[in-house]
Specification:
Order of helices and strands: HHHHHH
Strand content: under 5%
Oligomer: single chain
Distance between the termini: 12 Å
Shape: extended
């Protein structure tokens, strides 16, 4: 019983305390202290996550499961990045006599090189690959099966045309009194007005969902963070 009651009480107390600290000037110092405690807990959580990651990949390698070579690459990349980052290899010291006083992202350092010449190209390749999947999904989604899909298709075509260099040329001959019918102006209206309205509505919905979920956790209704049991 205590294994469930104590974590619930801790979560509720800390959660409500942080909420009150935002509205009470006298509790601002404690707010910063609790935030520091959170950073410490997050550091341990990162160590736990890294241990779990390595454990699962080592099991896959030892059992020679399909794709175990990718697990080996993951472990080597993880270990190499961790070593060059924590060891600050190739980073000149900021203060004489203190070899690890430099910034790990200093230009020319090993971690800087890995980030700019390994991680960034891989991320760019991943996003470039995702563009093809997005195009395929957009083609299926934009089929004009009903009124809503037709409006989505027309809006997408207008915005895409206005983004190209030749699209605005289709309506550049319109007189000034019909300037609001030009593609670039229609695109601006769609993005700045309708898109902003939709984005704000979604953000309000997300905020209400966060408040609802947070209250469930603070009041002990949602206990999913305690585990499957």
């Amino acid at each position: 019983m205590l294994k469930k009651t104590i974590p619930i009480l801790i979560a509720s107390f800390v959660g409500f305390f942080l909420i009150l600290s935002k509205f009470s000037p006298g509790l601002e110092e404690w707010d910063s202290k609790v935030s520091t405690w959170f950073d410490i807990v997050a550091a341990f959580a990162m160590v736990l996550g890294a241990t779990s990651l390595l454990s699962s990949h080592f099991k896959k390698i030892s059992n020679k499961k399909p794709g175990w070579a990718y697990s080996l690459i993951t472990i080597v990349a993880f270990g190499g990045t961790l070593i060059v980052g924590l060891g600050k290899i190739g980073v000149p010291p900021s203060f004489p006599g203190y070899p690890w006083s430099g910034d790990y992202m200093t230009e020319g350092g090993a971690f800087w090189w890995v980030f700019n010449y390994v991680y960034v190209p891989l991320a760019a390749t991943m996003f470039a690959t995702l563009a093809f999947y997005i195009s395929s999904a957009a083609f299926r989604a934009f089929r004009a099966k009903n009124v809503e899909a037709s409006l989505l298709l027309i809006t997408a075509v207008v915005v895409l045309l206005a983004q190209t260099s030749s699209g605005p040329m289709l309506t550049e001959g319109l007189p000034d009194e019909y300037a609001h019918f030009k593609l670039e102006n229609i695109k601006g209206t769609l993005i700045n007005l309708f898109n902003t309205l939709g984005t704000r509505a979604i953000m309000i919905g997300i905020a209400l969902g966060v408040v609802s979920t947070s209250l469930k956790v603070l009041l002990g209704v949602d206990r999913s963070y305690l585990g499957a049991d």
